[in-house]
Specification:
heterotrimer; A alpha/beta; B mainly alpha; C mainly alpha; A: alpha/beta; Rossmann fold; 4-stranded parallel beta sheet; 12 helices; B: mainly alpha; ABC transporter involved in vitamin B12 uptake, BtuC; 11 helices; 2 strands
């Protein structure tokens, strides 16, 4: 009797040990944080894009963790500063994949950086959500690469539709040297004929340029120009706008979504009145009607960001917000961090409301936004307003 | 005409920055690659000072003084300890300093672009078919005043003449009892102040950020070389020529290549005049 | 025998070869190999640049231009036009040599800061052409590059590239050392001390300066081509004035007139930013401070300063110290 009892208590003991062990390792696995890797241009020439992106990611990772994390696990953000340099982006991506062993990557402030890391991400089979603008990122579709912001092609389309409605048929272009400028200009030049618009002048300016009156004078002296489109970002468009006013040019000026921020208005001053551009609803969050599905998300983000960082929101930070939230949502739907499952979950996203718009991804569309996600905005009284 | 006016404005800024390069070079044969950062500090400091409510009349002098202090600190802590080193080592030190200052600026301020309100308003003035901003007039005017003031300083005052003497022959100047170390010290402060003034003048037209120093410093250096290193007149002329050449190329040739054209011009000038337009054409001691 | 080993040339080469052979023991994943490869490529450029700056005493602030020329030349010919990568690389190198030869003669008549400006201008012109001709070069976003392949063999993967770059680096260092010890090298050093003096003795200053300029340009271009194939893409980010400055800093930091110094400088300054990421927001400040600090306290560069510390005291020699040890 005693030996059976001994054996059974031994078995109980063993079972207890096994159970405890399983509990601990299970708990250890459960406690292992979900690592989200990121490389952003926090310093360097496009720092004003990367900085709000980084701040947004840090802010919301903190908030999500404070609310209990995702699937019971904490989020851990591993972020590096690529300073807008594609080579650094590549090295940091390798570091994220090989050394930090992250579960997915949300980042890539600029198109150049994003394109450079795509082969790495595809080879490593890790989901990657890019925060950069050009359409080439998702066209042709790459299995593991997704993109948040509206594309430059969409911006062109939105602008051309608005121009058509105002009966413009001859326009001038003025753009800068950046990748964004050039790629949007190229997209617009592919599409203008479709909308019955002819481009009669095409000027450019340089990176650190402080004055564009020369180019604008050329445009002003070109016959028949009815409107001017400035695909650009950074302080270039602000100077263009100021010079525009300085030269007394009265034709309507269209900017790109690259300058969709309150800051642009501040920088361009009075000359910004009447400027139109396609922008995310985030910029006019407070004025959206209550029936608009984006209103609550946009207003919440705006209030959080502004109260925490004491500075105006920017659409770029908005891209990062959408990227993170969608990633988290996908992880929840995939039930874990298995890379293939998360990727499938991202691809299956339907009706996800972000600050940039409502996302509907599919195997053929890794961006998920359509033209309705862009709103045509105009500067009135020093502020962004919706053009009805 | 428009191109000329714009070129003058831009050129005046390059001239101020180039003067800064020349002054330090004269005192020490060092090219201070951090010169552009003084321009940045001037602009950004004024932005935050006016942002916290100070009027321009107070903010501007304070910002200039702040930049001058940074310049003095740079000389004291980075250049003086390394005085025996070779030219190229000193260049690397100043480059390190410029990186350091930019990193510091990112923390003290932020990474966004900022605008300053123009001194006397925004309405353009029409001159002979072209328009010019009132701020541009300030730029050109102040530059003119500064150039005149500097030539008076170097030509008439004892301090100024001491600095000139040091630039011609350091050993001889020391023998005459001139405190060469102090000359170096003052020249850094003076250059920094000049750079800061340039930054403040131009900020209302072009906006400013922590990054503006890089390109402006480069162009200022190019202007100083074009005019001939060490020559004050050369710096001013070099700056104006560079500014006008740039805008003219943008207007009449190609706007995308205008920077390249400016450098081609500089290279061409250097090929024919290896010491720049007004540079010291001297023999070399064997 | 031991003396021969201790001689700078053989000893140094052995040390370098040993480092290249044994380093993989410390490299635990592809990321570390990546840094090693990048450091090696930078080192090749720096060895060439050091010949120009350290031995011939000419400043170049535009070498990123040659690097970029090599990178883009290979990229465009191999990827856009489908040339075999080896042919693309050789033709591009030849083109760079020709460019350096043609431009070198007039540019090298300039001295000191004027020369610095001229090379700077050259680098910027190359940069502007690359950024503006986007139909050919992809503009600011760059273009993708096919992997390097010879015959049917494709060079891909960090580990393989490590061995390739390591071997090429050893070759480059060996070539540089041989050049320095050759009559041409001695002529260069004479030039550095006094150009007029050298000419008096019958050395054609212009010819020698151009030769060194071309050689350093070729080193940079080869490294650029390799870098393009290794990374799989090129962007103008590597062709900027800032990159030229980085290269010069590596040479000076490591020790001018010291070939091994150039290698050390490249290795340290390539790895440093990776290490500094812990400083997050302060990274740039720390980097600048490190640059200033090392130059102030070790003005002759790391390797010569360390060598001085380690070398036994030698009696004062009449030979001016500018001619550093190889």
């Amino acid at each position: 009797m005693k030996s059976t009892q001994a054996r059974s208590s031994f078995r109980h003991g063993l079972a207890a040990v096994a159970a405890t062990y399983a509990l601990f390792t299970g708990a250890a696995v459960a406690q292992e944080p979900i690592k989200i890797g990121s490389f952003l241009a926090i310093t360097g020439p496009v720092a004003f894009l990367g900085d709000p992106e980084n701040k947004t990611l840090e802010l919301y990772v903190e908030k999500i963790n404070a609310a209990g994390g995702v699937l019971g696990r904490k989020l851990q953000l591993v972020a590096y500063d690529s300073a807008g340099d594609a080579e650094k982006a590549r090295t940091f991506t390798k570091r994220l994949i090989e050394q930090d062993k992250v579960d997915m990557i949300v980042g890539g402030t600029s198109t150049g950086e994003t394109m450079a890391v795509i082969p790495l991400v595809e080879a490593a089979q890790i989901p990657f959500i890019s925060l950069a603008g050009a359409i080439v990122i998702v066209e042709p579709v790459k299995k593991w690469v997704f993109k948040m912001p509206h594309s430059d092609r969409m911006a062109c389309e939105k602008i051309f539709i608005d121009m058509q409605s105002r009966k413009f048929s001859k326009i001038a272009l003025i753009s800068g040297p950046g990748g964004f400028d050039k790629s949007m200009r190229a997209e617009c030049l592919k599409l203008n004929a479709k909308y019955g618009i002819e481009v009669v002048a095409d000027e450019t300016y340089g990176g650190g340029d402080t004055d564009m009156t020369a180019q604008l004078t050329k445009i002003k002296n070109t016959a028949g120009v009815q409107a001017v489109l400035n695909p650009g970002f950074g302080q270039g468009p602000a100077i263009v706008t100021k010079n525009y006013g300085q030269l007394g040019i009265t034709m309507p000026l269209y900017q790109s979504h690259g300058v969709a921020s309150k800051e642009f208005i501040k920088l361009a001053g009075a000359a910004a009145e009447g400027v139109r551009l396609p922008g995310a609803a985030l910029l006019v969050a407070d004025t959206l009607p209550a029936s608009d599905p984006q209103r609550s998300v946009a207003v919440a983000y705006k209030n959080e960001y502004e109260s925490r960082f004491k500075s105006d929101i920017s659409t770029f930070g908005g891209h990062a917000y959408d990227g993170l939230m969608l990633a988290v949502d996908a992880i929840k739907r995939a039930g874990g961090t298995d890379k293939a499952k998360v990727r499938d979950a991202i691809e299956a996203t339907r009706g996800f409301v972000g600050v940039d718009g409502t996302y509907n991804m599919s195997p053929a569309d890794h961006m998920g936004l359509d033209l309705s996600a862009f709103r045509m905005l105009e500067v009135k009284g020093g502020n962004w307003t919706l053009v009805k | 005409m428009q191109y000329l006016l714009t070129g003058l404005t831009v050129g005046a800024i390059y001239a101020l920055v180039a003067l800064g390069f020349s002054i330090i070079f004269n005192a020490s044969h060092v090219i201070n690659f951090a010169q552009g950062e003084f321009v940045m500090i001037g602009g950004m400091a004024t932005v935050s000072l006016t942002g916290s409510g100070l009027p321009y009349l107070l903010a501007i002098p304070l910002a200039v003084v702040a930049a001058a202090l940074v310049g003095l600190a740079l000389e004291k802590f980075a250049v003086e300890p390394a005085r025996g080193a070779s030219v190229i080592t000193l260049i690397i030190i100043t480059i390190g300093a410029s990186i350091f200052l930019r990193g510091l600026a990112m923390l003290v301020w932020d990474k966004r672009y900022h605008a300053l309100k123009p001194f006397t308003g925004d309405t353009p003035i029409a001159i002979a078919g072209a328009t010019i901003l009132p701020q541009s007039l300030w730029v050109i005017g102040v530059t003119l005043v500064i150039v005149l003031a500097l030539s008076w300083f170097f030509g008439r005052t004892l301090q100024g003449k001491a600095m000139l003497a040091t630039s011609h022959n350091r050993l001889a100047a020391q023998l005459c009892g001139i405190n060469v170390r102090r000359v170096l010290f003052v020249s850094f402060g003076l250059s920094a102040a000049l750079g800061a003034i340039a930054g403040i003048l131009i900020a209302p037209i072009t906006t400013t950020s922590f990054d503006v120093g890089v390109m402006l410093g480069l162009k200022g250096f190019a202007a100083a070389i074009l005019g001939g290193l060490g020559s004050g007149v050369g710096a001013v002329v070099g700056g104006l020529v560079l500014g006008i050449a740039e805008t003219m190329s943008a207007g009449y040739l190609s706007s995308s290549y205008k920077d390249a054209i400016a450098f081609v011009i500089i290279l061409a000038v250097l090929f024919f005049l290896p010491s720049g337009l007004f540079g010291k054409r001297g023999g070399e001691r064997v | 025998m031991l003396q021969r080993l201790a001689a700078p040339r053989t000893g140094g080469m052995l040390a370098l070869a040993a480092t290249v052979a044994l380093l993989p023991l410390a490299l635990s994943n592809k990321y570390f190999y990546d840094i090693a490869v990048l450091a090696g490529l930078n080192a090749i450029v720096c060895v060439g640049l050091n010949l120009l700056i350290g031995y011939a005493g000419q400043i170049s602030l535009g070498h990123a231009g040659f690097f970029g020329f090599g990178a883009y030349g290979s990229a465009i010919l191999a990827s856009r036009y489908g040339w075999p990568p080896l042919a693309a690389m050789l033709i591009t190198t030849f083109a760079v040599a020709a460019l350096a030869f043609v431009v070198g003669r007039p540019i090298l008549r300039l001295k000191g800061h004027y020369l610095a400006m001229a090379t700077l201008g050259l680098g910027i012109i190359i940069f502007m052409v690359i950024t503006t001709e986007d139909k050919l070069t992809g503009g600011p976003d760059g273009i993708a590059v096919v992997p390097f392949s010879i015959g049917g063999f494709v060079l891909q993967g960090e580990r393989i590239w490590y061995w390739v770059v390591g071997t090429l680096l050893l070759l480059a260092v060996w070539l540089a050392l041989n050049l320095i010890e050759s009559p041409a090298g001695r002529a260069l050093r004479a030039l550095h001390s006094s150009e007029v003096g050298a000419e008096v003795v019958g050395i054609n200053a212009a010819d020698h300066k151009v030769m060194v300029f071309v050689i350093s340009a070729v080193f940079a271009s080869l490294a650029g081509s390799l870098a393009a194939h290794y990374s799989g893409f090129v962007t103008p980010g590597k062709v900027t004035f800032l990159h030229s400055i980085e290269l010069v800093t590596m040479v000076v930091f490591g020790g001018m007139a010291s070939t091994f110094g150039a290698v050390v400088g490249a290795a340290v300054l390539t790895t440093l930013p990776q290490v500094l990421t812990v400083f997050k927001d302060y990274e740039m400040m720390v980097f600048g401070a490190v640059m200033m600090g090392t130059m102030i306290f070790m003005p002759r560069g790391v390797v010569p300063s360390l060598a001085r510390l380690l070398a036994p005291r030698r009696p004062e020699s009449a030979v001016p110290e500018k001619e550093g040890a190889a």
